[in-house]
Design goal:
about 45% helix, two-stranded antiparallel ribbon, 2 domains, 13 helices
């Protein structure tokens, strides 16, 4: 994605770290970039490939042949789509069809492949098999696939692997052990060398987050809060293209400063407290800007001159009321 950002005159250099930006930063920039507009599902495909690469580099993984082909072919389909949107070119203009990835078995739906792999892992973990190493290697590849729906799950830890193995040994179902994989499927079009594969969301079971280590769960994914809550208040304002004062008013109007670990999180470093925001807050503000009158929101929530501790009350009787453009 760096060539795309560079061609669009977007900096790929992080002044703070003195290195190129991370893949996750590049994904977020491409999701906002006109002419590219990387979708959530396309971003998920990139995260899965990156997570598999990291797991292979740091540990030992085994990827089912069907899953490997699906991942690689989805990557080729995505590369072709991005090349077309960003530069008006097709992958076939640069790469002969005969060198595209092929598989001995026809491409199957992702959910069927995951079910097959889950059963294979369960068989490997049966008493007396002495195949725990291979089972763990296959679990890592399935955990890497979870990053499609959750960027915070991109890093596969050994604690996650052990929890999954324990859940499978205890006889728990795939939907309980890998709840995020229950909402994944694949869209397969065409056949042979010209087949197109896209990983898509298909609903699935809701995922519950808990801080209780004793809760009855099979796989607790460790979330890096610094990666999830990576934006400061000025970053939010700049990304929403509004002034910082009006962005503050909009945050108050939407209740984004509630420190609820969904929109925001307060980091405490000694006596210093920093409130940081997630992509959920950014999406909420952008959605709100399409419907609310930002001028009225700002007047309702701005600090009263002469008394910094008081705020004017919203122009309605109900707290958190929504001010719609054109509303009286």
């Amino acid at each position: 994605m760096s060539p795309i950002l560079d061609a669009k005159k977007v900096s790929v250099f992080d002044k703070k770290s003195q290195r190129s930006i991370s893949l996750e930063s590049a994904i977020r920039l491409c999701q906002q970039l006109d002419g590219v507009k990387l979708s959530d599902e396309e971003a998920g495909t990139i995260r899965v490939l990156d997570s598999l690469r990291d797991a292979e580099q740091h540990w030992y993984i085994v990827v089912d042949e069907g899953l490997l082909y699906l991942d690689v072919r989805a990557g080729v389909t995505l590369f072709d789509a991005l090349l077309t949107r960003a530069f008006g070119e097709r992958l076939a203009d640069h790469l002969p069809i005969r060198v595209l990835p092929i598989s001995a078995e026809p491409p199957r739906s992702l959910d069927l492949l995951v079910d097959r792999e889950f059963q294979r892992v369960a068989d490997l973990l049966k008493p007396g098999r002495r195949a725990s190493a291979e089972a763990m290697a296959r679990i890592r590849s399935l955990l890497a696939t979870e990053s499609f729906t959750d960027p915070d799950a991109a890093e596969v830890s050994e604690a996650d692997v052990r929890r999954v193995a324990k859940g499978i040994r205890d006889g728990k179902s795939r939907s309980l052990v890998f709840p995020k994989l229950s909402g994944l499927s694949s869209d397969i079009q065409g056949s042979g060398l010209t087949v197109e594969v896209r990983m898509v969301k298909s609903g699935g079971l809701p995922v519950t987050y808990t801080n209780d280590a004793s809760a009855d769960v099979s796989a607790i994914r460790t979330v890096d809060l610094e990666k999830k809550f990576y934006m400061g208040p000025h970053d939010l304002a700049d990304r929403c293209s509004v002034s910082r004062n009006k962005a503050t008013a909009l945050r108050r109007h939407l209740g984004l400063d509630a420190n609820d670990d969904h929109f925001s999180h307060r980091f405490v470093l000694g006596k210093t407290k920093l409130l940081r925001y997630s992509d959920n807050a950014l999406r909420a503000m952008r959605t709100a800007l399409e419907t609310v009158d930002i001028e009225r929101v700002w007047k309702a929530h701005r600090t009263v001159p002469g008394n910094a501790s008081d705020l004017t009350r919203p122009p309605c009787d109900q707290p958190g009321c929504v001010l719609v453009l054109g509303a009286g």
